[in-house]
Amino acid sequence: MSQLSTRHLLGIKELSEADIRLVLETATNFKEVINRPIKKVPSLRDITIANIFFENSTRTRLSFELAEKRLSADVVNFSSSNSSVNKGETLVDTVNNILAMKVDMVVMRHASPGAPHFLSKNVPANVINAGDGTHEHPTQALLDAFSMQEKLGDLTGKKIAIIGDILHSRVALSNIFCLQKLGAEVRVCGPVTLIPKYIESLGVKVEMDLHKILAWCDVANVLRIQLERQQIKYFPSLREYSLYYGINKKMLDSLKKEIVVMHPGPINRGVELSSDAADSAHSIILDQVENGVAVRMAVLYLLAGAKG
Amino acid sequence: MQKRLVLDQQQIDITLKRFCYQLIENHDDFENTVFLGLQPRGTLLLDKIVALLQEISGVTVPSGYLDATFHRDDFRRRDFPLKANETKIDFLVEGKKVVLIDDVLYKGRSVRAAMDAMIAFGRPQKVELMVLVDRRLTRDYPILPDYYGVTVNTLDSQYVVVEWVAQGNPADAIWITEKVTS
Prior knowledge:
The complex is a heterodimer. Chain A has eleven helices and nine strands. Chain A is an alpha/beta fold. In chain A, strand 1, helix 2 and strand 2 form a beta-alpha-beta unit. In chain A, helix 1 packs across helix 5 and helix 2 crosses helix 11. The longest helix of chain A has 21 residues. Chain A starts with 16 loop residues before the first helix and ends with a helix. By secondary structure, chain B is of the alpha/beta class. Chain B has a single domain, classed as Rossmann fold. In chain B, about 25% of the residues lie in helices and about 30% in strands. Chain B has three helices and eight strands. In chain B, the strands form two sheets. Chain B has a five-stranded parallel β-sheet. A three-stranded antiparallel β-sheet of chain B has the order 1-8-7. In chain B, helix 3 links the parallel strand 4 and strand 5. In chain B, helix 1 packs across helix 2. Chain B starts with a strand and ends with a strand. At the A-B interface, helix 1 and helix 11 of A face loops of B.
């Protein structure tokens, strides 16, 4: 099969295992493309894509823009800070105005969970979720799975730990859905205040002890403390958090096996990950960034290629 | 279903040998020559040519597999996107004489896409095209092969099928069949 079962990428929850495997396979082809002397293919030359970011982003936005340009799409960028949103325009009106300029696909990041789902029901363009609040960040999960697969082979039976601020992380939820669909076992680790109450209903075990989870896992996907989403104090201080949940190279070296360390960025060095751990041979953080472009090219190509 | 044999095992063997001697004539010691097999089916012919040339002249010509899926002109004109195959080229074609190798030349669109894809690896000095079967009368683009095994007059309602032993067939053979209409 070479077609996704959906015309939007709203979340990993809506994707089938076959969809995920198709994206990862196609991303392998695009990774070869972005390592050629000329890194551009003409597939999307008649497509215009709007990147609509209602929340801050560096990596994701650059990665999407690069992926779009590598596919020869025309790209328009929009951020809410200098737009008519501040003058009271609704989301659908804003997007419909952009679509009136003959835009075919919309990549959107929004602070409200479900915003891309709402949009997909109200506009004719393909919608790609680039992060909706604390809900999902599907392309990050796909690139994480791609990076893990590149390092470890098939993920069936592999043990993946997600460590840190699970409560406020859209990356955590998308990772859980994606990795479980690929047959991996997922556990989460963090302070009890940053673990969602019903996380175990997703088939995910909770471990409070960092040393135990590092000894258990094949991959440690480390998340940032999202202070910007925290309205109350969830732990006494960053220093204390770092003491209990910060990973350093000494800790990794003391394990009796090699594990892979990942981070979706931006890293708070010295908090969840020390510099020597982030820059160590265990870390594939920069591979994740490179793979992000290939995976996003695959998603754009597969969604744009489907008729209707 | 009607099925007509175009070339049998022995005729294909003779054709491949002829290809090798033609290549030797035109490329001398192959010092500046590379071969690119077009995915998916041109790669099988490429592998055979590379092995046979090694046997005849002792020369191993650098070769790679080229996939042109992302360069095709029918993207978004099909019901779903085509699945890409592996591109495996560990050299640049800058200044090289490139021989593109495919099994069947039909509309010429795949070869156009392949030339577009090839340029991502540099600006070649010269490009030649080798095909086992040249389907005359069905070309959409002004493309002709430099080396061809056999020329056939076919209709759009027909397929040209190239079977290789390497794919699990009893013998190498080329057939013309009718497309089945339901």
